[in-house]
């Protein structure tokens, strides 16, 4: 390929770079999409596409936050608990305290930010490994939610709150709209700001970042706040869509989010990966489970397929990497 | 030249159980190259980490331009114009050169948005002024060690550095690239930047330094003008005693050929058609630049990478090693270049590391039931034999100095009594005293009838220790010296560089 006058840092170069990095997952996604369209006539319909978007928007929101966390070389297992806690908290505030919907959502998101910060503080200031710290907060937050709700669903009436997660903008389900907005904002933050560079720096080499004067602790605390915020928002949407505050939602959501990142090519050791990759990874998992649904494959089978996809996508990535290093030599 | 820019006075620093600095004082003049010398553990690294804000000092004072300063974090040190290039390069490998150079000080507007054009533009400018030979958008993992070293320098320049501390910048860099780094150091000096230069290589220090400060055991022994001091005096100051014979060599009784390689070739092309002979009781040295295929060759000999073509014979018997286990069973062991990652289990203790190669010697009944007493005996035997300085068998390998770590890797294979020992850069990053001990040990091993293959980038070491020298260049052996009397340092260097 001829390297034309692609100025480093120019938009053109960015697009080329992004394609280079995400080419594999994008190609896989397109392939699966085409095969699905050919296999089942009910797949490529507006209705079905909207279903795919609606059912996966919540996972995508969590996965975006998770991408930030993983890029710093950490992990967040408490995502599902944030969903439950903040979702149920919102419904209690609305249904039982009679609070205004937006105020209730705002309060719940603030709670999420606080607990996110606590996650970050446990990891940075108290030096508890991220896996363990968030495993602990996963239990604590879910427990808190059960205590708060007494383990029973919180019932609320149809109204503003239900339409926030269940409504539509034209033909587009609102969660999908939020997903797009969140993607754009988070993409800009990650790629165009100082904070974004620092996330990559911390994950790329925490020591280098610290020696370069980056406040690594603060960066890590901030990504956990973002992850908490995103998952809480996702939980609020889910509960609004379901129509009642179920304390059991979000079980395993952290694993779906991690899977999206991994399939999307985000390195678990940090420092490498893109938000776009995560989005495609999430949509790919969504499309696969959708086509399996349409084909009448039961959900137990689907779990097996999911697992195989994760292994395959990472293995292909490893092959690509070793091929690239061989070419280099 | 006489203007004093930085003055460190009576610096002390303690860690749990150790007093690393016991009142060190040092003065830096503007625009000088000031070498900092001392054995490992003498306090050099601690001192520069204090200067770089990694460790806060316990007592003493640091004055910059005659004004007392308080350095508590890397950020504060940087703001004062002090930049430290650490020995273990700290770079984010996955990121681009530009990302690394601007890390922590990305040009951004008030809202925090970065200016990518500016970053790449300024970065290219710096790289060009350094004649670096790589670009802002290159990812760091694609660079060579010397290029990474230059990237660290570029990073420091970008921070408007006034005092640049370089901790063993040439430790894993070949001769040709050393010259490039020196060139750069001289240019920085001419810009009025003060350089603190730490190295174990004596010849380098005399080439580059204006003044030399020697540390020993957490105190400074002396500061001297480089011109007014000899190498022997320096060594004496560093270790506190005279080194009678640096390179140990007894008269060797060389026997029959024990290992023979013919036309060894790797399928990845990193080694082409390499042939050699190793006799009982001798040391053969492989000289060459970094990347010339020496490490790749010994990887074939030790079963890490099976050869793609060619023949390997042990005492006339053809062998083919598919994995390191087979090579070990045949009596060949490798002391790898990267001892921290490939030679030791750092987070485990000295005893564990010494005995890991000989588990069946003290674990009975089908690998059940550890005979702890026997294991301790074996470990103690090699700790004593190799004079490894440890606080006890339980000390973790990670807390030892480079020289002692290397001795443990050696001890591991001595315990396993292998006949052919391959040493890849055996003295890299090891101080003078420990080097002499390693040389003596190598000599003793040959006396016991063992054969040694040594890969080394230090020519004096290759020339003084070897019985035969093979010079490698671009994957092939380009010159063989079969006889000690024919060794010629200048000629070897020319072959290494491809000038002959």
TrEMBL record, chain A:
Superkingdom field: Bacteria
GO cellular component terms, A-Z: plasma membrane
InterPro entries hit by this protein: ABC_transp_permease
GO molecular function: transmembrane transporter activity
Transmembrane segments: 21-39, 51-70, 77-96, 102-123, 130-149, 169-190, 220-239, 275-296, 303-323
Keywords from the named record: Cell membrane, Membrane, Transmembrane, Transmembrane helix
Bilayer topology annotation: Multi-pass membrane protein
One Pfam match: BPD_transp_2
Record localization: Cell membrane
Chief place of localization: membrane
Record protein name field: Monosaccharide ABC transporter membrane protein (CUT2 family)
The species this protein was found in: Faecalicatena orotica
Native organism taxonomy: Bacteria, Bacillati, Bacillota, Clostridia, Lachnospirales
From TrEMBL, chain B:
Lineage: Bacteria, Bacillati, Bacillota, Clostridia, Lachnospirales
CDD domains: ABC_Carb_Monos_I (cd03216), ABC_Carb_Monos_II (cd03215)
UniProtKB keywords: ATP-binding, Cell membrane, Membrane, Nucleotide-binding, Repeat, Translocase, Transport
MF terms in GO: ATP binding; ATP hydrolysis activity
A GO CC term assigned to this protein in UniProt: plasma membrane
PROSITE patterns registered for this protein in UniProt: ABC_TRANSPORTER_1, ABC_TRANSPORTER_2
Cross-referenced PANTHER family: CARBOHYDRATE TRANSPORT ATP-BINDING PROTEIN MG119-RELATED, GALACTOFURANOSE TRANSPORTER ATP-BINDING PROTEIN YTFR
Compartments where found: Cell membrane
Protein name as catalogued: Ribose transport system ATP-binding protein/inositol transport system ATP-binding protein
Annotated SUPFAM superfamilies: P-loop containing nucleoside triphosphate hydrolases
Domain named ABC transporter: residues: 6-242, 252-499
Predominant location category: membrane
Coiled coil: none
Domain of life (superkingdom): Bacteria
Pfam families per UniProt: ABC_tran
């Amino acid at each position: 390929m001829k390297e034309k006058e692609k100025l480093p840092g120019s938009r053109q170069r960015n697009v080329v770079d992004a394609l280079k990095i995400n080419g594999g997952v994008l190609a896989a996604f397109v392939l699966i999409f085409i095969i699905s369209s050919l296999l089942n006539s009910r797949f490529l319909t507006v209705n079905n596409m909207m279903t795919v978007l609606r059912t996966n928007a919540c996972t995508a929101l969590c996965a975006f936050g998770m991408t930030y966390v993983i890029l710093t070389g950490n992990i967040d297992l408490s995502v599902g608990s944030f969903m439950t806690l903040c979702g149920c908290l919102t419904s209690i505030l609305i249904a039982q305290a009679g609070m205004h919907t937006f105020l209730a959502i705002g309060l719940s998101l603030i709670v999420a930010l606080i607990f996110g910060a606590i996650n970050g503080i446990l990891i940075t200031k108290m030096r508890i490994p991220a896996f363990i710290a968030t495993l602990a907060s996963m239990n604590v937050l879910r427990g808190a939610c059960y205590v708060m709700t007494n383990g029973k669903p919180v019932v609320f009436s149809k109204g503003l709150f239900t339409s926030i997660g269940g409504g539509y903008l034209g033909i587009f389900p609102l969660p999908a709209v939020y997903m797009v907005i969140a993607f754009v904002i988070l993409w800009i933050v990650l790629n165009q700001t100082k904070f974004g560079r620092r996330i990559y720096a911390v994950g790329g080499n925490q020591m280098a970042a610290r020696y370069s004067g980056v406040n690594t602790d603060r960066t890590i605390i901030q990504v956990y706040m973002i992850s908490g915020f995103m998952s809480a928002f996702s939980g609020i949407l889910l509960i609004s869509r379901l129509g009642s505050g179920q304390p059991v939602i979000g079980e395993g959501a952290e694993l779906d989010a991690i899977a999206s990142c991994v399939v999307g090519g985000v390195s678990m050791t940090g420092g490498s990966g893109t938000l776009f990759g995560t989005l495609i990874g999430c949509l790919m998992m969504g499309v696969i489970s959708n086509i399996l649904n349409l084909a009448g494959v039961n959900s137990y089978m689907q779990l097996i397929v999911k697992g195989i996809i994760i292994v395959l996508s990472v293995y292909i990535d490893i092959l690509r990497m070793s091929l690239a290093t061989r070419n280099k030599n | 030249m006489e203007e004093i820019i930085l003055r460190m006075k009576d610096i002390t620093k303690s860690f749990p159980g150790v007093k690393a600095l016991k009142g060190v004082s040092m003065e830096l003049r503007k625009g000088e190259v000031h070498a900092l010398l001392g054995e490992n553990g003498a306090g050099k690294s601690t001192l520069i980490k204090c200067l770089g804000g990694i460790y806060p000092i316990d007592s003493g004072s640091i004055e910059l331009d005659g004004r007392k300063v308080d350095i508590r974090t890397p950020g504060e040190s940087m703001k004062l114009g002090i930049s430290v290039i650490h020995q273990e390069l700290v770079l984010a490998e996955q990121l681009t050169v530009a990302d690394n150079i601007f890390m922590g000080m990305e040009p951004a507007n008030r809202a925090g948005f970065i200016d990518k054009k500016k970053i790449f533009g300024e970065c290219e400018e710096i790289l060009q002024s350094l004649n670096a030979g790589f670009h802002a958008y290159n990812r760091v993992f694609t660079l060579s060690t010397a290029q990474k070293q230059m990237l660290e320098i570029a990073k420091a320049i970008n921070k408007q550095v006034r005092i640049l501390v370089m901790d063993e910048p040439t430790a894993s860099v070949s001769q040709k690239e050393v010259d490039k780094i020196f060139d750069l150091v001289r240019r920085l000096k001419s810009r009025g930047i003060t350089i603190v230069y730490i190295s174990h290589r004596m010849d380098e220090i005399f080439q580059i330094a204006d003044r030399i400060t020697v540390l020993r055991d957490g105190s400074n022994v002396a500061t001297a003008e480089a011109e007014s001091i000899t190498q022997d005096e320096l060594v004496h100051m560093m270790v506190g005693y005279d080194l009678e014979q640096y390179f140990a060599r007894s008269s060797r009784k060389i026997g029959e050929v024990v290992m023979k390689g013919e036309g060894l070739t790797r399928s990845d092309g990193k080694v082409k058609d390499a042939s050699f002979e190793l006799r009982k009781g001798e040391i053969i040295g492989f000289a060459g630049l970094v990347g010339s295929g020496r490490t790749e060759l010994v990887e074939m000999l030790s079963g890490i990478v099976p050869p793609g073509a060619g023949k390997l014979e042990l005492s006339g018997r053809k062998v083919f090693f598919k994995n390191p286990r087979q090579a070990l069973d045949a009596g060949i062991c490798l002391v790898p270049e990267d001892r921290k990652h490939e030679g030791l289990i750092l987070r485990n203790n000295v005893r564990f590391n010494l005995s890991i190669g000989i588990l069946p010697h003290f674990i009975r009944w089908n690998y059940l039931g550890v005979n702890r007493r026997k294991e301790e005996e074996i470990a103690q035997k090699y700790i004593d034999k190799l004079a490894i300085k440890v606080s006890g068998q339980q000390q973790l390998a990670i807390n030892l100095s480079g020289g002692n770590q290397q001795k443990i890797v050696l001890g591991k294979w001595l315990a396993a009594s292998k006949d052919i020992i391959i040493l890849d850069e055996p003295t890299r990053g090891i101080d003078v005293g420990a080097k002499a001990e390693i040389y003596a040990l190598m000599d003793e091993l040959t006396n016991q009838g063992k054969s040694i293959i040594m890969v080394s980038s230090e020519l004096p070491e290759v020339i003084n220790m070897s019985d035969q020298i093979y010079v490698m260049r671009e994957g092939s052996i380009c010159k063989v010296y079969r006889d000690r009397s024919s060794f010629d340092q200048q000629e070897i260097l020319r072959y290494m560089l491809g000038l002959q």
